[in-house]
Design goal:
Low-confidence stretches: none
Order of helices and strands: HHEEEE
Mean pLDDT: 82
Radius of gyration: 38 Å
Oligomer: single chain
Strand order of the largest sheet: 1-2-3-4
Shape: rod-shaped
Structural class: alpha+beta
Strand content: 5-15%
Number of strands: 4
Helix content: 25-40%
Largest sheet: 4 strands, antiparallel
Number of helices: 2
Distance between the termini: 113 Å
Length: 142
């Protein structure tokens, strides 16, 4: 039986590599700057993208927001007018009669014309007037 030895073969398995070429010279106007290697930088692109999506959403949903504000202000004017001039309560107590979600609607009263106006800031405003035996009627929209 032949003895087993652990010796390396006389030739190396991988050839010796020649030293690589020196790195390319960096132009003076780029010295001191970090190379980005195609990566986008910071959160500005994300913020711009989010702003564009928000603007598209608002333009798409604005008619629905405006319609809901119009409906809410007309409802508030009618309920507020009935509360104020049919039941004889003060305007502050009338706002407790609103449905949930109508926190943005405010009421104003004109005692001279017996008119109550419900309004949603920057979106809608509607009025209802007391018409005697007929109760409160919503004024036509302008």
């Amino acid at each position: 039986m032949a003895p087993v030895t652990n010796t390396n073969p006389p030739e190396t398995a991988t050839p010796d590599r020649q030293p690589s070429a020196p790195p390319p010279e960096v132009p003076p106007h780029l010295r001191g700057r970090k190379r980005r290697d195609g990566k986008s930088g910071g959160s500005l692109p994300w913020a711009i993208g989010f702003g564009v999506l928000l603007a598209i959403f608002l333009v798409w949903k604005f008619p629905a927001f405006k319609a809901q504000a119009e409906l809410g202000s007309a409802y508030a004017a009618r309920v507020g007018c009935s509360c104020r001039y049919v039941q004889g309560r003060n305007l502050e107590s009338c706002q407790t009669d609103f449905e949930p979600g109508m926190e943005m609607v405010s009421l104003s009263d004109d005692p001279a014309t017996k008119t109550v106006t419900g309004s949603v800031p920057l979106l809608a405003s509607r009025s209802a007037r007391f018409a005697g035996a007929s109760g409160c009627l919503i004024n036509p929209s302008d």
